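Worked problem 6 (solution included).
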Amino acid sequence: MKLSSILGLNSRTQLFAYRYNTAKGKRIADSKLQTARVLTSAGVPIPEIFKKFRNPRDVVDFNWSKLPDRFALKPSRGLGGEGIIVVKKKTEDGTGWITTQREKISIGDLKLHTLDILEGAYSMGNVPDVAFIQEYVGRAKVFRKWAFRGTPDIRIIIFNKVPVMAMLRLPTRESGGRANLHQGALGVGVDIATGITTNAIWHGNQIIHKPGTEKKLRGIKIPDWTDILTIAVKAQMASHLGYIGVDIVIHPEKGPMVLEMNAQPGLQIQLANMEGLRRRLDRIEDINVRDAEHGVMIGKALFAGRFTDRVAVKEGIKTIGTRETVKILGVKGAKIEVWAKVDTGAWRTSIDKTLASDLGLLDKGNILWSKTFKSTLGTEKRPVINLTYYLAGRKITTIASIADRSKLRRPLIIGRRDLAGFVINPIVATK
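Solution. The predicted structure is:
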């Protein structure tokens, strides 16, 4: 990880959080209840809120015996998971509940804790707060052998409607079932393109296995990945925050939903992904993003991680020539086979605009953004698109620029960005 690519505390605050986040957005993110109100209005899924307590009278008047077997009692303005009680089941005698930390808690305990919340015991600045009872989410089946008791979440950094970096946070015995890294939870990097976990950290140190076991943390496939990214972007759009961390949980029955938003998300996500945020943020700062779906498409195209390359390499090293036939896929299932030039001097793949148009690749929904390119012929603005093709039997999903190649022999140039796992032999092809 290069130092120049790392986002530090001052840069995060001055260049992104302060510059792109409104005061209104920060107030929303600082309050779990305001976050819930805004996201509900925007149609973004969240865990259901059963009851709010604004004053001691609410605590006295509430019928606590009617609470469900599972729920979470939270402060609206709590920080770092402090003050949250998560109840997993009722006691056998029905007089109380068992928390995720296997502690017995009574109605009297819940009342006292709620009063502490109202007095500001867990709020930022110790100012009076609001308490609320929320639906218990639990663990999705896919995470059960990696997470200890509590609910894992996925922290996604969103900037300019684009998902930039993601991390799966797994509760441990040390963290008491909570997903907060500073309490001892695991942070596992996630490839934006595939939703597959890559590297992992514990207390800031790189690890390979879940502590105390031989269970590898790399290679976990997070379900509903595109939906998760889209929900996170929609939350950012509703929040009045340009730069944000969105925490997503996966309900075992209901699917992905937003748990919290953070106007100044922590930076350990960079360690979990072994890559800096700064360069990624700079790449998308000036891109015009239409909507959440467009932002997800851009994020997947730009930030496909090294893990994707490793998957390709596992298929075996393949030898190709400087000229190869490839099969290009159109947006509506059309396919065409053409000759392509393999050019290691070019970074990005480029396709002829007429060919791209014939395949439907210039439809609005497939154009990521436009970029200014300089060449020996001058400066021109070209669209950048999603492109899928087969090279030597291997499926390549990439991004490509559009160019006028009508006077050139081959309508497609394959850049070195797409050549991981290939060896180039210049005498393989002769055409």
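Discussion: Residues 3-30+38-45+139-302 form a domain with the D-amino Acid Aminotransferase; Chain A, domain 1 fold (CATH 3.30.470.20).
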